[in-house]
Amino acid sequence: MLGASPTEEVPVATQPDLEQLYLQMCRVRFLEESVASLWREGLVSGEMHLGSGEEGAVVGVLAHLEPGDALSVDYRSTPPFVVRGVPVEAIVRELLGDQAGLDGGAAGHMHLLSREHLAAASGIVGGPVPVACGFGLAAQAGGRGRVSFAFLGDGAMNEGMVMEALNLAAVWRLPVVFVCKDNRWAVTTRSRDVLGGGLVRRARGLGLRVVEVDGRDAVAVWRVARTAVHRARRGRGPTFLVARVERLEGHFLGDPLLAVAADAHELRAQAGPLLEAVFHGDGAALSSRLRSLLGLGRTIATARIETLRRRRDPVSLLRHRLPGETAARVEQAARDEIRTAVEAATREVTRA
Prior knowledge:
Layout: H1 18-40, H2 55-62, E1 70-73, H3 78-84, H4 88-95, E2 113-114, E3 119-121, H5 128-142, E4 148-153, H6 160-171, E5 176-182, E6 185-186, E7 189-190, H7 198-205, E8 209-214, H8 218-233, E9 239-244, H9 256-262, H10 264-278, H11 286-308, H12 314-319, H13 324-351
Parallel strand pairs: 1-3, 1-4, 4-5, 5-9, 8-9
Antiparallel strand pairs: 2-3, 6-7
Helix pairs in contact: 1-2, 1-3, 1-13, 2-3, 2-8, 4-13, 5-6, 9-10, 9-11, 10-11
């Protein structure tokens, strides 16, 4: 853990409610599986960015959320909105473009908004950070111990508004908990290749308290988030959590990089057109094309290695900490809830 002082006050030790954590993770996972099915059926338009693999980071942090706290998230908005308590049926209807959806069917999954829950999502890379600072400034002025939560990806750390907002949060000691979900990729680019100084050093350089945690472990996230939220509520400033995660569905559903890296048949299918393009008569010099092809090959190889290596699914990881009967009961309750909500949301759409 970086940035913590050995003499720093820590809240009285308590244990997380594992059953509740697991329930929230199952609600998120089952809903996103249903959303993925709707997308593949053509009922959800456009790209779909899921948070599969990020459940531990989201649920572990938001377990400390209280009424009056605010939430600013990126375009992987479904998980935090579900955990925040936004009605699942309203979210699904929004994704379907239904006028009865959360935002009248006009926002889609990238720009969800719920005034009632003080929750806002932004499709602009880095957008949640300054919004969270605005929430934090309002909370600070209100003086009621409210906290603002922000979720962003590691690829957002090169945005100017993110740097400016983080700097203001540190200088003004805003009650904000920033959660950087670090999967080490910025779409199809390795983050380390374009991020000078690294996440931790950059955030610390702005004066933020920084904590690193395995974002796949909901219990570990819960523990570090408890201290971060406690500090913020007591007016001791923001914390920047770097949560290492593994995104299970790639950057978006149908991510071609993930498909090529995971499927040898898909790789062979793409190889022919790529080689033909290299030797096409028009365009850039052959040497330039070969360099580009080699770079693409390295990217695919890196993605393939990460795809093939053993990954820890955050949902499965927490399940092993619960008695089998308890886990099964929680899963069934979550599955029933999500199925009922999705069926209610899609009933009119499928009739049409």
